[in-house]
Design a protein that fits this description.
The protein is mostly helical and about 375 residues long. The protein folds into three domains: about 1-45; about 50-145, DNA polymerase, domain 1; about 170-320 and about 335-360, Orthogonal Bundle (hpI Integrase, Chain A). Helix content is about 50%, strand content about 5%. The chain is built from 15 helices and five strands. The strands form two sheets. A three-stranded antiparallel β-sheet has the order 3-4-5. Helix 8 (about 185-195) packs antiparallel against helix 10 (about 240-250). The longest helix is centred in the middle third of the chain and has 20 residues, at about 125-145. The chain is globular, with a radius of gyration of 24 Å. The two termini are about 35 Å apart. GO terms for molecular function: DNA binding. This is Site-specific recombinase XerD. InterPro entries: CB (IPR044068), DNA_brk_join_enz (IPR011010), Integrase-like_cat_sf (IPR013762), Integrase_catalytic (IPR002104), Integrase_DNA-bd_sf (IPR038488), Integrase_recombinase_N (IPR010998), Phage_Integrase (IPR050808).
């Protein structure tokens, strides 16, 4: 049993294990750490579970339409996702003709037709995204008893997708780096910070000043702003530090680093990327901003850098042997000096200038 007060709420007692399935001390400690982290963010596991049970019982006692179950799915699951709006739009559009039907009438044929119709419009890759969204919904509805079987299981893909093989060479990254200095006073620094930190596009576009620690030369993002939901620390190499220092010197009371409105992240990344492409050589092959991350990973691997270090910089799960449950909780704080050294090394590769080495956290 573990007791912890929820931030802004009551104390809650949590059962960490129960007979006949006892848990080890390390497993119990890991579960307690997860509960403690959630409670610190104001997440009340018990209240959420009780709300879901009440909602499930109420809806099972009534005739449910697809639309009504969508609403519950949105409230209990989608609302916790950063991709909530897009996922809900996919569901409502693909099953538009079924929204007011009983959810019990929904069949595998209906799900397959929704995928096939989207594929027939010429958007086969997007049809696969529709398939994934529908499969996640039907599995959720089946587990909670809203439908007697998972009608989304086994639905065929619209197309077999191949992993993209585009990897930016060091030479290409340097060409992009050079072009960013003609990309404007907002987009230029944004693109350069993207290159130097190798973080995800949305994480840099939405970067907030309270996530930037110029004194420690770090970006510390909360779990609410990362893909895997875990806090993540990124070292600022000398060039990255200089970019943010210049932006900081010219700002007023703005909360966002990259903004033109003062209240929302800068928009128009597609047009800005197109203008950046226009600054590159005519024979430069098509590339995406995400390719910067794969280019970094490839360059570091060729230079002999540890895969675990690269994974942590990119905020991937560590490869190799699986870490213990406790280690997973603290992955974000591991190997910080090595990660700092790797990003310093990367900045030298990109800028072709020596970098002042400053370790993270004084370690």
């Amino acid at each position: 049993m573990y007791e912890k007060r929820v931030k802004g709420g009551p104390k809650r007692k949590h059962t960490l294990g129960a007979w006949p399935r006892p848990v080890s001390l390390s497993e119990a400690r890991a579960r307690a750490l997860e509960i403690e982290a959630e409670a610190g963010r104001g997440v009340d596991r018990i209240a959420l579970a009780e709300a879901e049970l009440r909602a499930s019982k109420h809806l099972r006692d009534n005739i449910l339409t697809v639309r009504e179950v969508f609403e519950v799915y949105d409230r209990l699951h989608l609302s916790n996702l950063r991709t909530r709006d897009e996922r809900l739009r996919q569901l409502e559009q693909s099953l538009a003709v079924h929204l007011d039907r009983s959810v019990l009438e929904l069949s595998r044929k209906d799900i397959q037709k929704a995928v096939d119709d989207k594929a027939a419009s010429g958007r086969k890759a997007y049809a696969n995204r529709i398939r994934a969204a529908l499969a996640a919904f039907t599995k959720w509805a089946w587990i909670r008893g809203y439908i007697p079987e998972d009608v989304g299981a086994g639905v065929a893909k619209a197309i077999k997708e191949k992993a993209r093989e585009r990897v930016l060479s060091v030479r290409e990254v340097r060409q992009i780096w050079k072009a960013t200095f003609e990309a404007g006073e907002v987009w230029g620094p944004m693109f350069r910070l993207l290159i130097l930190t190798c973080q995800r596009r949305g994480e840099i576009l939405g970067l907030r000043w309270d996530e930037v620690d110029l004194e420690s030369r770090r970006i510390v993002k909360p779990g609410s702003r990362t893909k895997n939901g875990k806090p993540h620390t990124t070292h600022l190499s000398q060039p990255a530090f200089e970019e943010l220092r210049k932006l900081d010197a010219g700002r007023t009371e703005l909360e966002l680093v990259f903004t033109t409105t003062g209240t929302t992240p800068v928009s128009g990344i597609g047009k800005a990327k197109a203008r950046l492409d226009g600054l590159l050589p005519d024979d430069f092959q098509h590339w995406r901003l995400h390719d910067i991350r794969t280019g970094f990973a490839t360059a570091m691997a060729e230079a002999g850098e540890s895969e675990s270090v690269v994974d942590r910089i990119l905020n991937h799960s560590a490869s190799g042997s699986a870490p213990s449950a406790v280690a997973r909780v603290y992955n974000q704080s591991e190997m910080l000096p090595q990660r700092a050294a790797a990003l310093d090394r990367w900045s030298e590769v990109v800028t072709q200038k020596p970098c002042t080495i400053i370790t993270m956290g004084g370690e």
